[in-house]
Design brief:
single chain, about 180 residues, 2 strands, about 5% strand
């Protein structure tokens, strides 16, 4: 229990640290950030339940006003802006990525990359595009076109999640809780 709480807190901190990478704005007011890599890693390393809890802890800290999102954003206001769908999708994405890691017998790189693509991109885009459509008063097709601007970077992040997860599996197999 204590070990799980420590890992959850550490991975919430990882997402926060990845927010220090300066954001890039491509589609409207939704920034391209490194934080989605942290969300993918929460699932692929910690597993479905712990990964989702780490992301929920991070979002709780953001809601309390800590400026942990890229660009130093935080507070309840971010949950009514164009990024709201992506924020809602964070814990779901981590859960799905972790679920895939836990349930597949693929080698860690392939399982984590698949988890990153299906959870960190697929689930995240469904939530994010829906949120953008609602907040920006766009059709789903218009919001999807805006969201697709993120796809190349997110594919790179999914592969990076696979590489990092594989590295952890090789260096410290017991630290890969999604496979423990």
């Amino acid at each position: 229990m204590e070990r799980s709480l420590t890992h959850i807190a550490l991975f919430a901190a990882l997402i926060a640290v990845l927010g220090l990478v300066p954001p890039l704005y491509l589609a409207g007011a939704v920034p391209v950030t490194a934080q989605t890599l942290g969300v993918m890693l929460c699932g692929t390393v910690l597993g479905a339940r712990r990964g989702a809890l780490a992301v929920l802890l991070f979002l709780l800290l953001v809601a309390l006003g800590l400026p942990l999102l890229s660009g130093g954003r935080g507070g309840l206001g971010v949950f009514v802006g164009p990024s709201v769908g992506y924020l809602v999708g964070f814990p779901l994405a981590a859960f799905v990525a972790g679920w895939i890691m836990e349930r597949t017998t693929l080698p860690p790189f392939w399982a984590a990359t698949a988890g990153g693509v299906i959870g960190g991109i697929g689930v995240m885009y469904v939530c994010g595009i829906t949120g953008m459509a609602i907040v920006l008063d766009k059709t789903l097709a218009e919001a999807a076109l805006l969201g697709l601007a993120f796809l190349p970077g997110d594919m790179i992040k999914a592969v990076l999640a696979g590489l990092v997860t594989q590295g952890i599996a090789r260096a410290r197999p017991g630290a890969l809780l999604a496979r423990a």
